[in-house]
Every structure is written in structure tokens, then in C-alpha cells.
Design brief:
The chain is an alpha/beta fold and 333 residues long. It is built from 14 helices and eleven strands. The radius of gyration is 21 Å and the shape is globular.
Amino acid sequence: MAEDLVAEIEALEDKLAQAKASITSRFIGQERVVDLTLSALLCGGHALLIGLPGLGKTRLVETLSTVMGLDGSRVQFTPDLMPSDILGSEVLETGADGSRAFKFIEGPIFCQLLMADEINRASPRTQSALLQAMQEKVVTVGGATRRLEAPFHVLATQNPIEQEGTYPLPEAQLDRFLVQIDVAYPDRDTEKDILLATTGTEEAEAHQVFDGASLIAAQRLLRRMPVGDAVVEMILDLVRAFRPDDPSASDRVRDTVAWGPGPRAAQALMMTVRARALLQGRLAPSPEDVIDMAKPVLVHRMALTFSARARGEDLGRIIDENTGALLRTEAAA
């Protein structure tokens, strides 16, 4: 059984390497972003991509849809977007014999990969329409519950809250995203490569590597990947250390963090460290995987106190400081 599992994991690693190569041929120089997005899909979760306009977020999602072989839909979120524009609605139809009946018209959410573009530009009412779909993989319209096709993933893009015309996502919806992915400006050499690759007569084309069934199989295999006791304990130590009312929390966390991550964050870390190990060609996750995935998994599941915000504190920096201290403690032990 162990030998079969190793062979399956190694075969999946080769397939993931092909998928990653196809994606990076079109989404250039953002390997970290690609790894985190693939990790979200492997874990069966959703990802929130945050960055300024024009950094390639939409291009990444479109490329993923092709490479992963998923039926994709795109919704441009705007302030006047209504929940029915996403979920669908019932319309009254008149038959040839004059009879009338309601017919449900599916919205764009009935797909396998939904791109929610600029999700924080829609009203809170419309944002909340995604909650049930993201968590339970069903939607309820007109009193009837309809199941979404598996696999189902939401990759949402978001402009920074500082920009005008945006609505901050509520904590309940943020917690539905497995990871938050920050898309930064490329460095000079990368930007040069992007210019040369995208302004000529031809562009690299993505090719399909997975399909819906093989992605589901990969997600099941990921859950079978063994995780050592030391890594499990480190995940628990890390998550609990960011809860200000926990005895293990540092004075800095108590002074800056209003509330910390819940059990769902520990579950997300448990899954994403496996995905990172897979993408790096390893058979089991290590403590370094926990440290690397801490910020993407935790940063949107925590909040600063009012005084910490006034001082200009940054959650990402606090996470880096505490994870680094934890790694040093683990190494010393």
C-alpha cells in the first residue's frame, strides 16, 4: 500500500510540473502566485488574489481554466450587480398550449471555476450570495436547493481597499477563502520578459493537463499524504499562538491582534502544507512548509486592534516575526 501511494504521488508530481510549466509560459515571473493558486485547487479550496489592476490576475485565472480543464465562468463585480446575476433566477414561461410554468435559468456560478473579478466592488448583499456556494457547494433560489458541479472553485480578484468605490469583504466571507495571494509588481527583468512575450505577433498558448475528474482524484490523493506528528504539532502551535487570549500568545500578539485564526485556519494549513510539498516534488510536508504557508493562510483570518492600526502595524509582518521565532524554537528543541 505504501509503495502504491508513493507511486501515485510521484505521478501526480510529474503532472503538476507540466501544469505549472504551461501556466508560467503565459503568466511570467510570478512563480509564488502560481504555486499558491495551484495549492488552493489541489486542496479543493478558493483563493483571493489581491493586487492593483493590470498585474495579470485575470490572465492567470483564464490560463488556469485551460490548463486544469475546467468549465470556467467570469463575473465582473460592479456596485449594481445583483445576487440573481450570479446565482440565476426563475422566469415565467408560456408554453405552446398556453400553459405557464416557472423555469430556472442558471447563473454563471454553475461552473467549475468561477472568476469573481474585482469582488470588493460589489455591494455586501451581492458578495454574500457567494457564501453558501463557497462553503456548501449548493445554491438556494426560489426555495429550491441546487447542487453545483464538482469540482467547484472560486478565484476572486480584489483591488486594495484604499481605492475608491470598494466594499471590504466581511470576515465570514474572507474565512471561506483557503488562501490570500498578494500579486505584487514584477521586478525589472521580469517586466522586460513580459513585454517581449506579450507584444509580439504570437503569444505562448496554454495546453490542458488536467480535467475535472483528474483534479478530484488529485484532491483525494492529497488527503492521503502522510503528515508527521512534528508538523501537526507545529501547525497547532502556530495557529494558537496568534489568538490573543491563548496562554501561548506573545505580548506583541496580545497588544496588536484583536482576534486570531480559528480551527478552519489549522485545517487550511494542514492541507496547504501537503500541496506545497507536492509542488516541490516531496512525499511529505516539512516544518518549512508550515512557515511558508503561514501568511497566505492566516493573514485574512486575523484582525488588528484599533490602536495597532493607528500605529501602522502590519499583520503580514507580525506573522513573519512569530513564525520565524517559532521555527527557531523548534530548531533549538
